[in-house]
Amino acid sequence: MSVQAPNAVVLVRPHRFHPNPQTAADNAFQRTAPSSVAVAAYQASTELARRLSEAGVLVHLFEDDTGAHPDSVFPNNWFSTHHGGRIAVYPMFAANRRGERRADVIDFLKHSYRVQEVVDYSGFEPERLYLEGTGAMVLDHSARVAYAARSLRSDPLLLERFCTTFGYESELFDALDSEGRPIYHTNVMMCIATDFALVCLESIVDPVRRADITHRLEASGRTVLPLTLTQVREFAGNAIELRGRGPRRLLAISARAAASLSPSQLAVIESSCDLLTVDIAPIELAGGSVRCMIAGIHLDPRSVPTTNPAPALNTADDVAVVPS
């Protein structure tokens, strides 16, 4: 068991996916996509859901066939769940991402899990204050630390407000890519698992803060695996630890990202987790990878069976589709 690694997730399968023009200005990871990308992205997200379910992760799969929200495949940016029955809903930087917030997802979680409180920060959008969930923050659930790289999508005021409400201590720092631009989301340069942390230390501008972050992670008992900026470009930091049906935890990561890891890095990871790699190249054109696609559920399930028409299935052959 690990408080860091959830065993249930929410995914959103896009029917009309394309990279979001409203996020291209500060997301240096985005690329131009071919006209066929929507079909390929649908297939890639389906494959991720299938592979996770096959490994024993409980998958709640929601559909988005509207076409109005290009980044809906990345639900971890607009909500997060927390031990003790709490959900946070977040303010989004791009106007066309705000419609990704879905009442049916929250209602489903309330119906299937023990939810005591929903804390909604979306009202800060008119003030141009944003905090894009577990994209903007990488949360150490065991040590209660929220790591955040400063950007347009991670406002320091909201970070402190979140930490006060949810019981985390903030670690805010500046992180730049190879061209000197702020890294738009912390979760592309940092992944915290139970026994190790993947982090691009060279992107952290201030050497004192770099040393602080390293010490903080090591003090939590983790092995720090430094990533290069080149590996970050391959989405090596955009991974998430999960629990399936087996005795060992899983590290869900894209095939592209896994291929960029060194043998020594893989040895440390595989001493703690089994790698679960999926080719999601079409979705990575939008500037996010596997971690961005997965909203982990850190809530207790209801002990009494519910009558919800779409309970998640934990089988190798099927993934429950939650009707919208």
UniProtKB/TrEMBL annotation:
Signal peptide (from-to): none
UniProt keywords, alphabetically: Transferase
SUPFAM superfamilies, per database record: Pentein
InterPro entries, A to Z: Amdntrnsf_FN0238
GO molecular function ontology, one term from the record: transferase activity
Pfam families according to UniProt: DDAH_eukar (PF19420)
PANTHER family recorded: AMIDINOTRANSFERASE
NCBIfam families (alphabetical): citrull_CtlX
Name the record gives this protein: Amidinotransferase
Lineage, top ranks: Bacteria, Bacillati, Actinomycetota, Actinomycetes, Micrococcales
